[in-house]
Write a structure and sequence with these properties.
By secondary structure, the chain is of the alpha+beta class. The chain contains three helices and 14 strands.
Length: 194
């Protein structure tokens, strides 16, 4: 191959890689758009059987927006963030994920979407969890199975990025407390004899 052919081949490969999610280009939009992604339990210390709240906070820079985990308009179903929670372990996630309460809406007539929800600034998702009645006392770290974050600016939507999220929890010593009635069946089913 001549030097010209090698140079053209290298440029073509570089251009192709720039379009692949997870490459340096995908990282660039994330660094520009996202200030912080954080997981947290409230309270951060709890007894076995106690209900806690998991909060996933995404802080975006000005000019960027993201989405809820579900859209009311079926045509906007792909414009969401994906959160997958781990199987029962130190905690058992219960109930549904609650999307941010503060959202804006817009129409996307070219796509037939009449109600597209989106979020700017500080975006907060929450879900209840019960500390397993069988959890051992001590520090624990709970990691989300998946958090696939979709972000757009006013003209572009970027390839979704899988962002690792974890939250610390201290399981207090002592006998377990009774699981809240609202979650008792869900916890028993999730633990299934564990």
């Amino acid at each position: 191959m001549t030097r010209v052919c090698v140079a053209m081949f290298a440029m073509a490969v570089a251009a192709l890689l720039a379009t692949v999610p997870g490459t340096a280009t995908a990282q660039k939009w994330y660094d520009k758009a996202v200030k912080k992604v954080e997981g947290r339990f409230t309270p951060a210390e709890a007894k076995p059987g106690q209900t806690v709240t998991f909060t996933l906070t995404v802080e975006l820079n000005d000019g960027y927006h993201t989405y809820p985990t579900t859209q009311p308009d079926k045509l906007a179903a792909s414009m969401t963030n994906l959160i997958k929670f781990p199987a029962a372990g130190t905690v058992v996630f219960v109930g549904d994920t609650l999307d941010p309460k503060d959202f804006a809406t817009k129409e996307e007539p070219e796509l037939g979407i009449k109600d597209l929800r989106y979020n700017t600034g500080t975006v907060v998702y929450t879900r209840k969890a019960v500390v397993s009645p069988k959890a051992a006392a001590g520090a624990a770290t709970v990691k989300l199975t998946t958090f696939s974050l979709s972000v757009c600016d006013k003209t572009n939507c970027f390839p979704a990025k899988n962002v690792p999220v974890e939250a610390a929890l201290k399981v207090l010593d002592g006998p377990p407390v009774a699981v809240e009635k609202a979650y008792a069946d869900e916890v028993a089913k999730a633990l299934g004899g564990k």
